[in-house]
């Protein structure tokens, strides 16, 4: 009977530790749905960018990637961005895909322009810079050093 009681207590401890871990992970994730307005941006390539990725302005999270689709006419990746309602982007703003770190994920960085008119809800960020492929950069470096020798 003692072994059954010990197993029950250990099982309860394990479940308690799991519950604490889940609460900690949720509270530190800074996850919250953004209730704002949607704009789109079109890119040649979006390597590593996913639905749910951060949208940052000056390093501050101001939205999320709501949806990614392919334009069948132009074959460009269409990124639907859900922005916070208190963020207004000038019409000449730009969007670029950036890396969090060398091994980290990708996020969408917004670069505000200088125009006085703003992009309306449902509008488009016209100026975009696609993701830079680390593999192609390394390949270019390797082949350029071989050509010099």
Strand and helix map with partners:
Blueprint: H1 2-28, E1 37-43, E2 54-57, E3 60-70, E4 77-83, E5 94-99, E6 106-111, E7 124-125, E8 127-129, H2 134-148
Parallel strand pairs: 1-7, 2-6, 5-8
Antiparallel strand pairs: 1-4, 2-3, 3-4, 5-6
Name the features.
2 domains; eight-stranded mixed sheet; alpha/beta
Question: Care to describe what's here?
Answer:
- The chain has 149 residues and is of the alpha/beta class.
- 28% of the residues lie in helices and 31% in strands.
- The protein has helices at residues 2-28, 134-148, and strands at 37-43, 54-57, 60-70, 77-83, 94-99, 106-111, 124-125, 127-129.
- The mean pLDDT is 85.
Count of domain modules: 2
- Number of separate helices: 2
Strand content: 25-35%
**Helix content percent band:** 25-40%
Helix and strand sequence: HEEEEEEEEH
The number of E-state strands comes to 8
Report the sheet with the most strands, covering strand number, pairing sense and barrel closure.
8 strands, mixed
Distance between the termini: 78 Å
Mean pLDDT, as a whole number? 85
């Amino acid at each position: 009977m003692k072994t059954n009681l010990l197993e029950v207590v250990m099982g309860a401890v394990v479940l308690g530790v799991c519950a604490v871990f889940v609460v900690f992970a949720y509270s530190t994730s800074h996850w919250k749905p953004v209730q704002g307005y949607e704009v789109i941006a079109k890119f040649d390539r979006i390597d590593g960018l996913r639905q749910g990725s951060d949208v940052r302005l000056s390093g501050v999270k101001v939205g999320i990637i709501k949806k990614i689709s392919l334009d069948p006419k132009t074959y460009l990746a269409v990124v639907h961005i859900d922005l916070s309602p208190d963020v207004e982007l000038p019409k000449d703003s730009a969007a670029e895909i950036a890396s969090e770190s060398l091994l980290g994920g990708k996020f969408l960085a917004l670069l505000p322009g200088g125009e006085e008119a703003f992009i309306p809800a449902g509008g488009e960020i016209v100026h975009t810079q696609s993701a830079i492929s680390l593999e192609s950069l390394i390949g270019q470096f390797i082949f350029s050093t071989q050509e010099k020798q």
